[in-house]
């Protein structure tokens, strides 16, 4: 068995701190784009665990032989992402499941970090051999103009989540986690427990999933006869430093009233809110309750443990592979939007 590459080894190779490498790979801190890309490419070349998938032939029993040639001699499926896959639904489990499925048919997955340069110039990464690309998988890629650019390239394409669908033309298959129903039921349950003042945290226009979570928030408040007050929400653009606890604590202090409940668009935001509340001397759940979305690995380990919505990442990975492989085999079939069910998990942060 090959030796597992560690964050410290990547840091040593680049002459950076382990914390800088961790922030870059998990997309959880302020790291310059140039440094992040350098770290990502080094991690890929060194075979860091998130990007060195295990041999699926030992794990995917009963699959078609990995020696089966891909159609048209094209053997590469390119992952396009604007940020390194980390703790969200675009994380390791999803990619591992996707890799296991495509490996069995002789495809290989390559990872391409789409920089601002490619987005601004509407071009492919310079090191990409487009003639060998059988299909493209897009994760954490929410530029409207770049998504439309990809849709015009006549290459089988699948988005896992997408830019807000009514703002651009996504002529491709899209796979989502279910957002509306789970968010609605979670919030409705908590409103029934006297959480009448509910604040939404996050850029609602960041992507389709964030927007659907916002729609659930708006719907449940309207159905319960509660006024929707955006002045008591934190809705700043995602370019703002939500990970900066001091900045976020200032945003919370600026709210008209302290909410009964913060509904955060994902668990990363919820973790930041919990830290900001502690900085303000507020205790969760005694003073204010907090819930998120994703069921990140840390959610169950936090103090308090985080109420959230679980995304079934492995199921999404296998489903993504099936959709994209089907598109490669049948490029003229109608495009599909597919949703994978999610589950609400109630924990201590809303007790």
TrEMBL record:
Entry superkingdom: Bacteria
* CDD domains registered for this protein in UniProt: HTH_LacI
Q: What Pfam family is a match for this entry?
A: LacI
Question: Residues in domain HTH lacI-type?
Answer: 5-61
Q: Name one GO molecular function term.
A: transcription cis-regulatory region binding
This protein's UniProt keywords: DNA-binding, Transcription, Transcription regulation
Q: What is this protein called?
A: LacI family transcriptional regulator
Q: Tell me what organism the protein belongs to.
A: Pseudobutyrivibrio ruminis DSM 9787
Taxonomy of the source species: Bacteria, Bacillati, Bacillota, Clostridia, Lachnospirales
């Amino acid at each position: 068995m090959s030796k597992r590459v560690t964050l410290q080894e990547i840091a040593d190779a680049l002459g950076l701190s382990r914390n800088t490498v961790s922030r870059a790979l998990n997309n959880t801190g302020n790291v310059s784009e140039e440094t992040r890309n350098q770290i990502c490419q080094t991690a890929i070349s060194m075979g860091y665990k998130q990007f060195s998938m295990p041999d699926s032939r030992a794990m995917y029993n009963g699959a078609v032989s990995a020696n089966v040639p891909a159609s048209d001699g094209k053997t590469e499926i390119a992952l396009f992402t604007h940020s390194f896959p980390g703790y969200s639904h675009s994380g390791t489990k999803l990619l591992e499941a996707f890799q296991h499925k495509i490996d069995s048919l002789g495809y290989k997955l390559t990872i391409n970090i789409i920089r601002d340069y490619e987005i601004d110039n509407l071009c492919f990464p310079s090191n990409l051999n487009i003639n060998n690309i059988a299909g493209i998988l897009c994760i954490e890629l929410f530029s409207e103009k770049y998504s439309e650019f990809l849709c015009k390239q006549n290459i089988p394409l699948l988005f896992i989540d997408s830019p807000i669908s009514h703002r651009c033309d996504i002529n491709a298959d899209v796979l989502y986690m279910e957002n509306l129903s789970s968010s609605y039921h979670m919030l409705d349950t908590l409103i029934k427990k006297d959480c009448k003042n509910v604040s939404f945290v996050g850029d609602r226009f960041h992507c389709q999933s964030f927007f659907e979570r916002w729609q659930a928030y708006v719907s449940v408040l309207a159905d319960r006869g509660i006024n929707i007050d955006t002045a008591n929400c934190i809705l700043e653009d995602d370019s703002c430093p939500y990970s900066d606890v001091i900045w976020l604590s200032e945003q919370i202090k600026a709210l008209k009233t302290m909410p009964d409940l913060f509904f955060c668009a994902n668990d990363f935001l919820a973790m930041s809110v919990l830290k900001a509340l502690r900085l303000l001397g507020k205790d969760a759940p005694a003073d204010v309750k907090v819930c998120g979305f994703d069921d990140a690995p840390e959610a169950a380990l936090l103090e308090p443990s985080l109420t959230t919505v679980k995304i079934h990442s492995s199921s999404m990975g296998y489903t993504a592979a099936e959709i994209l492989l089907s598109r490669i085999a049948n490029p003229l079939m109608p495009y599909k939007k597919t949703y994978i069910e999610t589950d609400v998990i109630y924990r201590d942060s809303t007790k």
